[in-house]
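To illustrate the input format used throughout this study, we show a single complete record. The first block contains the structure-token representation of the backbone; no residue identities are included at this stage. The design step must infer an amino acid for every position from geometry alone.
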């Protein structure tokens, strides 16, 4: 259901708070939806029961993004989806800390409140009164001081802030992803000429880099524990090639472009390396190969290979057990001879879908498990047989 301001007022009341606490651990599966709604409707009106049920579902989903305060916060489905990973929020907040921060299109306030928690004087603006009401509730739930106001930032943007964070909607009204930065809601150009020492705009990680050529600044691709989380365009930083950032286990790692000799192309060695997706998006595969004394399998494939395993947060490693030019019968015979019954298939630059390849292999006997990496070496299809992956 779509929550309203009247629903938010109800959910903030004592009665709803007590019911949310009482039903917090209930089974929310589809099979139990009707029985649970029936129990709720015995105490409150149908609309109020639906609002409580929707909030219970959203709070359950919010545990990963709001592990500490999620069970006392309010959300909408769309705003919860758009909320950043907590590690990304904390990282940005540290960059903005001890300064005044303006959060444009603040939604339910998660980034504004991260800025406040880091010591910034924070103001969040959003055109949606419902989201502003939720943001104010969430500030109370987290015991943080931040201001939230309903405003159409397309009409005017307040001046006098040290930092501006811009997080526009990147989906249309039908929920489809918006690829064009000038079709974001509002468009990226809204903040291009704003006056602030630091301006950070959150973009889709799939943004077309060609669209950003006229903006200058520097683009940062952020990965959280191996997942590409977001792209940040820093409009007030010196113009530079994109760089990669990894947030993992409380640490922050950066990887920048650096001049050097191109990596050689060679057959598989002892180790196969899969660079973090932030490295791929920032175009830093060659830089990583230099740092890890690794070579490429193919000039168009982002796999690396090396004789030694070096400690790094930037890649996953597989121990290569064997490899061969791809030929289905030969690969099947090899797996059968080695007692392999189950395979996990990864592929880059290989035409067959993993499910189709697994069916064609027809593995029915044995007890061993392997990872098959189907890719190319110097333009030719190959199969690399690996053990389970590990991190550097």
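Output of the design step:
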């Amino acid at each position: 259901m779509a929550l309203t301001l009247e629903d938010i007022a109800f959910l903030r009341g004592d009665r709803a708070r007590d019911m949310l606490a009482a039903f917090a651990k209930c089974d929310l599966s589809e099979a139990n939806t009707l029985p649970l709604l029936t129990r709720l409707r015995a105490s409150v009106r149908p609309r109020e029961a639906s609002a409580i049920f929707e909030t219970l579902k959203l709070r359950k989903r919010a545990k990963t993004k709001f592990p500490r305060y999620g069970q006392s916060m309010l959300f909408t489905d769309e705003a919860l989806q758009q909320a950043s990973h907590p590690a990304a929020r904390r990282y940005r907040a540290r960059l903005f800390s001890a300064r005044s921060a303006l959060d444009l299109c603040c939604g339910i306030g998660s980034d504004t409140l991260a800025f406040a928690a880091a010591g910034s004087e924070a103001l969040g603006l959003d055109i949606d009164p419902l989201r502003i009401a939720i943001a104010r509730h969430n500030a109370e739930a987290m015991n943080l001081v931040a201001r939230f106001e309903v405003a159409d930032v397309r009409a005017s943007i307040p001046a006098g802030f040290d930092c501006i964070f811009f997080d526009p909607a990147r989906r249309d009204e039908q929920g489809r992803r918006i690829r064009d930065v000038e079709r974001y809601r509002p468009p990226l150009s809204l903040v291009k000429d704003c006056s602030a020492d630091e301006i950070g705009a959150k973009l889709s990680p799939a943004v077309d880099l060609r669209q950003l050529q006229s903006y200058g600044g520097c683009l940062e691709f952020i990965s959280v524990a191996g997942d590409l989380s977001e792209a940040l365009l820093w409009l007030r930083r010196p113009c530079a090639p994109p760089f990669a950032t990894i947030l993992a286990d409380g640490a922050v790692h950066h990887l920048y472009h650096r001049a050097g000799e191109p990596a050689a192309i060679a057959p598989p060695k002892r180790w196969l390396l899969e660079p973090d997706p932030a490295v791929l998006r920032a175009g830093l595969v060659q830089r990583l190969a230099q740092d890890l004394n690794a070579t490429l399998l193919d000039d168009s494939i982002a796999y690396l290979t090396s004789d030694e395993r070096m400690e790094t947060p930037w890649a996953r490693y597989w121990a290569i057990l064997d490899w061969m030019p791809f030929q289905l019968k030969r690969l099947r015979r090899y797996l059968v001879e080695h007692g392999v019954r189950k395979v996990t298939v990864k592929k880059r630059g290989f035409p067959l879908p993993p499910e189709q390849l697994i069916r064609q292999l027809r593995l029915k006997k044995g007890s061993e498990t392997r990872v098959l990496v189907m890719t190319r070496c110097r333009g030719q299809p190959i199969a690399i047989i690996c053990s389970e992956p590990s991190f550097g």
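Structural context for interpreting the output: The chain is about 30% helix and 25% strand. The chain has three domains: 5-60, 80-253, 271-391.
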